[in-house]
Amino acid sequence: MAEDHNAQGPTTGVAPHLTIPSRGGQAAIEFYVRAFGAEELIRHLAEDGERLMHAHLRINGGSVLLNDEFPEYGGEQDIVPKGVTIHLQVDDADEWWNRALLAGAVPVFPLDDQFWGDRYGQLKDPFGHSWSIGSPIKAK
Hints:
Blueprint lengths: L16 E4 L4 H12 L2 E7 L6 E8 L2 E7 L16 E5 L3 H11 L2 E8 L4 E7 L5 E7 L4
Parallel strand pairs: 1-4, 5-8
Antiparallel strand pairs: 2-3, 3-4, 6-7, 7-8
């Protein structure tokens, strides 16, 4: 885990920033490591030593930022994530899918071959965030 934010290089492109409900930020990091092979680049805890103020993960080459809820700073409390799906385009959807399920993700849209040419499915992580996983359909 890097301690110097500048040592990890800049965040470029679009990077989702997930707010994790119910003081689950540190558990979310551990889940994303197990489920998606995340690399933890930085973790900063709040003054209480428990809540996650900021984390930067690298998943499949892209940045994902995390924090716990902080209602005392004007944020919402007991957030139920909705309306956004984070997509992972990978080399082997089945491998990524199965690893996520073993880590505790719940299927929402079953992984299957789709008409547009990808093997694709959607799942929810234990913190309520929606993820989709896709890869080109392999020739049989």
